[in-house]
Amino acid sequence: MIKTNETEPNDTKLCRAKTRSGAPCQKHPIAGRTRCRLHGGLSTGPITPEGKAACVAAHWKHGRRSKAYVEARKQIWLELRRVETEMRNQGLI
Which ranges of 12-66 would DSSP assign to H, the alpha helix? Predict the structure, then answer.
């Protein structure tokens, strides 16, 4: 028997992911995990608050839909309508 540096896969378990066809994956999971390396066995995602914040910041495209932007836009339009109404009442427009 030839020994290698790689660990032997667990012969009793298979990856619990499903392929695109819906069949179960036939690869062995990463040691201590339930998924193979192709289906996310290496990644656990961000765990700490700093990691989660970094993930959110990395996927930020623009701020045009943020709550702060929407609220600022509401205030601007509210002020514009107020000024327009005041000008109409004074007969300027």
Answer: 49-58
